[in-house]
Amino acid sequence: MGALLAQRARRDARQLSMWVVGTAAMAGLGYVGVVSSFATEQERAALLAAAIANPVILLFRGLPSGADEAAFIVFLIFPWLAILASMMSLFLAVRHTRGDEEEGRAELVSATPAGRTRPVLATAIHGFFANIALALLTAVAFIAVGLDALGSLIAGAAAGAVGISFLGVGLMAAQLMRTSRGANAVAVWAMLTTFMLCGVGNAIGTPSDDLTRMESSWLTWLSPFGWGENVRPFSDDLLWPLLLCLALGGALSAAAILLASRRDLGESFVAERLGPASATAALATPTGLAWRLARGGALGWAVGGLLVGVLATTLATVVEEIGADNPSVQEMINQIAGAGDIEQATLTTFFTMLGVLAACAGVQVMCRARQEETRGTAEIVLASPVARVRWLAGYLAVGVAVVLIVVGAAFAGAAVGIASQGSSWNAMRDAVVTGSGQAVAASVFVVATALVFTLAPRLTIPLGWSFIALAAVLGLFGPIFGLPEWLVHLSPVGVAPIVSGDGVDVRGLWWLVAAIAIGVLAALSLMRRRELAPSE
Fold first, then answer.
1. Separation of alpha carbons 49 and 322, rounded Å
2. Is the dihedral of CA 378, 102, 468, 330 positive or negative?
3. Which of 11, 218, 311, 459 has the fewest CB atoms inside 10 Å of its own CB, making it the most exposed?
4. CA distances from 330 to 38, 325, 345, 395, 474 (A)
5. Total-model pTM
6. How far apart are CA 437 and CA 457, in angstroms?
């Protein structure tokens, strides 16, 4: 067990450091940004009242527990801390179980006295301590900015406990599904479903008379996110909901260990779907094959884009009303959006998130190219009369196409939102302009990942996702954190064109287009001479 834990710690040292430090940094910087935007209790109470009066906002925020500064911070940022902890745990669980089985590493370990179950147990222990580290460092970040020590420790513990519950979800998904990709998809959808369940439960809860506190409905108690939020750090400081998170994580981890002992290595409890007996004509080309591999993920990302489009247009009027009563809200939205009236700024803020979403979809396609290379399937394709440049160009084309599909879904969602609200169709023009700019920005990430794939193939996946994470922090939270404008504009999503009044501010459009053109030429030229790198 000691050797297994040491191997996991060494293998994940850099990756977990990024997750843990990044979560703690969001906690500390989030406090600084929120305090500067909502300095008085009156402003905080006004925003809480507006959020409670408009339940849609509670779908994406925490549980109101009062207008006190510390409790207000938790209301705004705790869901995102819990999501980061959950994603860290899900990916860790699948990577060291089903992922190792796909790569053949699990078979080697199982041939030792470790057997089939001890590696799963080691992964559970490894994930548990990773969440403990995240909880402690998050608490330290809160304490460092001057918050109460006890409340800070409980807030960190709540985020870590939610992560532990989803560690169990990831371990179970790895036992049920045949591939790591399928396991990750099931686990992430479980996370998103429970997140929305918690938000709906909060939205239909019972508000206090002064509209600064909300009691959750029973739906919230069906979600680990709801358990974490009902700890209410800096307010009630309840500890018993954390036991629910730990119990769920422990029970699912134990069940995963039991299932691992009952199945053959490489098999799964959910049968792999058989494909058709003969391939379609589209699979005769490398581009068609790349699309076939990417279409399932593209559909999931498109659903997210549709939701962003609906919210961007339906919430614009709500935020405009809130901004009229609370200038701090308007100022915060304008900091992110940069220009335009409050309705345009709200749409720009949502479509900036769309740019990050579309970038994730496109980068996933390029990461798939790297996975095909490591698993040896790319070698089979390239052994046919398919040139390397043509093969990579196919993945680039599909990556950009997936970006356009996600943005197109957002346009459809925006149209639905405008029609349902009876708003002016001028907002559709704003959506098309802003969304098109974000499509260009998202394509930069696709090309950058392709360039890494040709220069340092083993860094394709970590650097591809790191680029997005860094750009999201700079583009979405940089203005709120008070970062210099030049630093915010290093993020493609932060410098994409926006609508300002009746005109369009192209901002960094031309350098984004130039980066795409140069990156595509460089990646395809380098691919011509690159050797295959099939091993991790």
1. 10
2. positive
3. 218
4. 11, 9, 9, 41, 20
5. 0.77
6. 29
Q: How far is it, in rounded angstroms, from Cα 139 to Cα 149?
A: 8
CA dist., res. 180 & res. 436, Å (int): 33
3-class secondary-structure state, position 83: helix
Sequence-ordered alpha helix ranges (H) in 375-492:
377-382, 388-421, 426-455, 460-472, 478-481, 485-488
**Would you call 234 helix, strand, or coil by DSSP?**
coil
Per-residue pLDDT at 335 exceeds 70: no
Query: Hey, how many other C-beta atoms are within 10 angstroms of the C-beta on 17?
Result: 12
Of residues 122 and 422, the one with the higher pLDDT is 122
- Count Cβ atoms within 10 A of the Cβ of residue 15 and give its class: 0-12 exposed, 13-18 middle, 19 or more buried: middle
**Residue 153: C-alpha distances to residues 79, 87, 135, 234, 533 (Å):** 16, 21, 8, 10, 45
**Could you read off the pLDDT of 221-265 as tens digits, one per residue?**
999 999 999 999 998 889 999 999 999 999 999 999 999 988 888
DSSP 265: T
Residue with tokens 């990709």: 181
Q: What pLDDT, in 10s, does the model give residues 452-490?
A: 999 988 888 888 888 888 888 777 766 656 667 777 778
300, 346 in Cβ contact below 8 A? no
Query: How many DSSP H helices and E strands does the chain contain?
Result: 21, 4
Q: Which two tokens stand for residue 239?
A: 């500890």
Q: Are strands 214-215 and 498-500 parallel, antiparallel or unpaired?
A: unpaired
Structural tokens at position 247: 């119990």
Residue 115 — left, alpha, or beta (φ > 0 → left; ψ -120 to 50 → alpha)?
A: left
What is the overall mean pLDDT for the chain? 85
- CB neighbour list of residue 295: distance below 8 Å, 6 or more residues apart: none
For residue 211, give the amino acid letter. L
Residue 504: other Cβ atoms inside 10 A: 16
- The whole-angstrom separation of Cα 376 and Cα 478 is 41
Cα separation of 444 and 513, whole Å?
Answer: 8
3-state secondary structure of 214: strand
316 and 343 Cβ atoms separated by less than 8 Å: yes
- Which phi-psi region, left, alpha or beta, contains residue 491 (left: φ > 0; alpha: ψ -120 to 50)? beta
The encoded tokens of residue 151 equal 């409340």
Instruction: Tell me which residue of 421, 419, 430 sits closest to 350, measured CA to CA.
Output: 430
Does position 178 have pLDDT exceeding 90, yes or no? no
With the CA atoms of 56, 300, 302 and 351 taken in that order, what torsion angle do they form, in degrees rounded to the nearest 10? 50
Helices (H), 235-285: 240-262
Chain centroid offset of residue 116 CA: 31
